[in-house]
Amino acid sequence: MDSFDQSTGFRYDPNSNTMGDADGDSEFCGILEIYVHHARNIHNICIYDNQDVYAKFSLTCNPDETLSTRIINRGGKNPEFNENLMMKLTQLDAVLKCEIWMLSRARNYLEDQLLGFSLVPISQVSGKGKVTQDHSLSSTDLFHSPAGTIKLSLSLSTSFPVKPSITPSKSSISSEVVILDRKISEVILDPAWLISSPRCLSETCCS
């Protein structure tokens, strides 16, 4: 059974005042929760041992902001991640990009190597609760070149608790005055009362 103990990445605080702040991120529209289960049959390009791998996530509309899992040492072809990430969304028609990378232990000679990637439209998740699925990885942008699969559980939350506005309540004395004035108006405007009371209204009000 997969574990949900590990968690990293962006955290949304429902008690924070940043959401909806006119000076803050007015385009904030939801939180995408990403649970990374595992990858299967990915390319193992390390020739001397099982490779160290990690997964990286971003939105195609904002590729500079990324989230990464922890590094799985000697993950090889079938790394187990079992890690939870959270990503802030600014548009619901975005596309999630998931990448699998091999960590380079000799950065002076070799950079981290991309092993495969997958694209997941957010529209496939919106309104469907938690969606768990294996996604095919490809090793090139030009055409689909199979590079294994990655299993993800995705869920989108677009509704958040709203703090109730505080409206000052009218005092009981004011309410009684309003009710009393209403009753006096009804009596004065009642034609039956005018016929049975020939005195002027001023004398009535002043007596």
From TrEMBL:
CDD domains in alphabetical order: C2
Protein name per its UniProtKB record: C2 domain-containing protein
SMART domains named in the record: C2
Location of the C2 domain: 13-135
InterPro entries for the chain: C2_dom, C2_domain_sf
Highest taxon, organism lineage: Eukaryota
SUPFAM superfamilies given in the database record: C2 domain (Calcium/lipid-binding domain, CaLB) (SSF49562)
PROSITE patterns: C2
